[in-house]
Amino acid sequence: LYVPNDTYSLHNLSLLSALVVLVKGNPVPSALSELMTSGWTSGEELGTDGETGAPPKWEKVIKMLVHEVTTLRNQQFVEEFQKPVEEISSFSQHQVPSTPPHLSKTLCSTSNKEACLQEISRGLQVYQLLLQHVKAEYPQSTLLPSVTHQTTVLIGLVKDQMKVAEVVEDLSASERKRVLGEVSTGTEWERKTSVHAILRELRNFLVDTKRALRRMGKRGKDFQ
Fold first, then answer.
1. pLDDT below 70 — which residues of the chain?
2. pTM of the model as a whole
3. What Cα–Cα distance (Å) separates residue 87 from each residue in 50, 67, 82?
4. Vertex 220 angle, CA 219 and 221, to 5°
5. Distances (CA, A) of 122 to 84, 128, 209
6. What's the longest Cα–Cα distance across the chain?
7. For 223, which DSSP code?
8. Would you tell me how many other CB atoms lie within 10 Å of the CB of residue 120?
């Protein structure tokens, strides 16, 4: 075994030993690990939106609602149509005319906060009414009372952020009669499919609402 006797060689040997220990103890990060820790992946993709601390109250409510509405939709589909959840997309053609359209991306991506909040509030009120039809057709659901309550809570949170003069008024008696009339008639099959369509579209509306409110939060108009 050759043992170097000069100071220069001993110094190089020490550096080489330290490098071996460093590499063995702390592997050089791969390109993938660097990508995952470099902030390249956006917070929205990770579900954190790049924020720390407790999420605002509206976000907690929407998260709970999306989970409950999704579960309720799946349960109703399996029990009422005797089909596996994997076939749920085969019912996508069933629609209910009175369900609010998806939130306008143009409206809710601009700085027009009040107009977007009005659209959200109005849509949630219609869904709140349509949930009465869900209750009538699917009374055995144990999740529906919570969905109804949390929808009411969310409406209140949205209205609290609006200017008093621009708060959306509650649906009139004639509007309520029209909305419920569109789903309460028809055959048993049509009423069942309308329940499925309502729950499906409510979930979509909630996801749109979350995105819209997050955009407002990024512009310094966060809600609690």
1. 1-53, 106, 109-111, 164-167, 218-224
2. 0.73
3. 35, 19, 10
4. 95
5. 34, 10, 12
6. 100
7. -
8. 26
d(CA 194, CA 3): 86
Report which of 149, 186, 164, 66 is spatially closest to residue 118, judged by C-alpha positions: 164
Residue type, position 12, single letter: N
Tens of pLDDT, residues 163-215 = 765 667 788 888 899 888 888 888 999 999 999 999 999 999 999 999 988 88
Tokens standing for residue 89: 């997309």
Q: Compute how many other C-beta atoms are within 10 angstroms of the C-beta atom of residue 7.
A: 8
Helix (H, G, I), strand (E, B) or coil at 114: helix
Give the separation between CA 185 and CA 202, rounded to whole angstroms: 20
Q: How far from each other are the two terminal CA atoms of the chain, in whole angstroms? A: 72
Euclidean distance between CA atoms 96 and 185, whole angstroms: 12
**116: which 2 tokens?**
């977007």
CA distance 73 to 198: 9
